[in-house]
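Observation: inputs received (chain + IPE).
Thought: call the complex predictor directly.
Action: predict_structure
Action Input:
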Amino acid sequence: MAIFSSSTNSIPQVGEVPRHIAIIMDGNGRWAKKRFLPRVAGHKVGVEVVREAIKHCVSIGVEYLTLFAFSSENWRRPPEEVSFLMSLFMEALKKEVRKLHKNNVRFIMIGDKSQFNEALSTEIAAAELLTSSNTGLTLTIAANYGGRWDILQATNAMQKANPGLSGNFNEAHLTPYLSMHYAPEPDLFIRTGGEKRISNFLLWQLAYTELYFTDTLWPDFDQPAFDLAIQSYQKRERRFGRTSEQLANP
Ligand code: IPE
Ligand code: IPE
Ligand code: MG
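Observation:
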């Protein structure tokens, strides 16, 4: 039994503040380039902005914040940049997890963990365990994550669990095996850095998410910039297939 309803099977409740925000934090490299700095300098500042974004979500009452930190395709980057990103991730985990825990934040990592080195895997598992009973914001970091990978791994797991059902699967069979089974579907998707694409992020879950694209580069995505995204969300009419008239007269 899925805990959360599916936006394609039933109409979700929507509130003023998005319950779940998913962000593609893009533009670190260009931010650095504009300042004649190496790309990795942008990633470093990016981590500070992550901290501020988490704080802001806690203060306005967002329940789930999901951040795309490293895609399945980011392994295609120069090896020095990949290893810098891995060590930055490790460093941030070590430095921040205690603070997250103190602030009642539940930390979860989604993605194919099999390609991380042992030290990083151990650190991730420890952080997840330490914060697993926290009841405040659920912070999900998507690392070595790809939406297609997710759907495929869920399909394989679903089939394994229900060998007799072949050919008769429905959404309710699949969703418990998707990486984000513990969260409602995102209400608001934000991509910084100007590109207008999903880049293999939460393909299944974004079915009815409100999309927001901004040219602001991730290292410049401060609280006022975040508030603009939320204000844009608050002006949307979320119809989920219905007409405006139906929304006005339920
Ligand atoms: C996003 O910033 C961070 C990661 C993908 C890890 P980029 O590194 O993609 O920055 P741009 O897009 O090159 O500016
Ligand atoms: C998407 O950013 C992934 C992350 C932010 C982690 P990219 O900068 O890698 O996206 P593309 O490849 O340009 O679409
Ligand atoms: Mg990019």
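Thought: report the result.
Final Answer: The beta strands are 20-24, 64-71, 106-110, 138-145, 188-191, 210-213. The chain has a mean pLDDT of 96.
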